[in-house]
Amino acid sequence: MLLAVLTDLHANREALEACLAHAQERQAEQYAFLGDLIGYGADPSWVLDTVINYVGRGAYVLMGNHDLGVLQADRKDMNANARAVVEWTRGQLNDYQKEFIRNLPMQIELDNLLLVHANAWAPEKWEYVDGVMEAGRSINATQAQITFCGHVHRPSLYHMSHAGKVGEFTPVSDLSMSLSKLRRWLVQPGSVGQPRDGNPAACYALYDTVQRELSFFRVPYDAETASQKVLEAGLPAVLAQRLIQGG
Q1: What does the angle CA 132 – CA 135 – CA 138 come to, to the nearest 5 degrees?
Q2: DSSP state of 155
Q3: How many CB atoms lie within 10 A of CB 30?
Q4: pLDDT tens-digit readout, 166-218
Q5: What is the CATH superfamily name and number for domain 2-245?
Q6: How far is CA 167 from the centre of its chain?
Q7: pTM tops 0.90
């Protein structure tokens, strides 16, 4: 099965459309959305409706911290810009969309795979996996051989040997790699809707569950339009600029 893994969509319609079209062209058979469907971007309703449509076809979807934020009146743990967008987003969604978010799980286990938004050791605390130490902690918190997670907004690939040593690869776009059964892996596909590694192109990954082959992709999209929509919605200008700069 060819699984498309997309995370941190952040209400970016243009980026999501581009990634879904890219995955379809490559004959993706299943889809997993790892949370933060909304927040930051200007099209939360459209993005949610699109994800809900994919759920109807069997897609997997997780809760992210921005998704949860829409359900909570006070999110002091978020920075001012994120809080402003959460409050605006809450007013854009209907009751059905909010109920959909409310019922999302924090993690999903699929055979030897774990899907989670932030990390495996405490999914509900939203702590980041942003280095080999945190990657090792997350890998050791699960029995899954391969963990897919988001939250950091940049593509990364970590691996752990039988001896417990953790290493990191820098992913190369469009290059397929085999994930050896002799190691355990943590895959961060990068953000669809708001990349933060200096490259504005949207990110996602494809994983062949039979051949155990993983590919990272960077997908150019109309970031200018997405950025202009953020401004027109009256959302913080820095969020529009991030889309153009890739962080």
Answers
A1: 155
A2: -
A3: 17
A4: 999 989 999 999 999 999 999 999 999 999 999 999 999 999 999 999 999 99
A5: Metallo-dependent phosphatases (3.60.21.10)
A6: 22
A7: yes
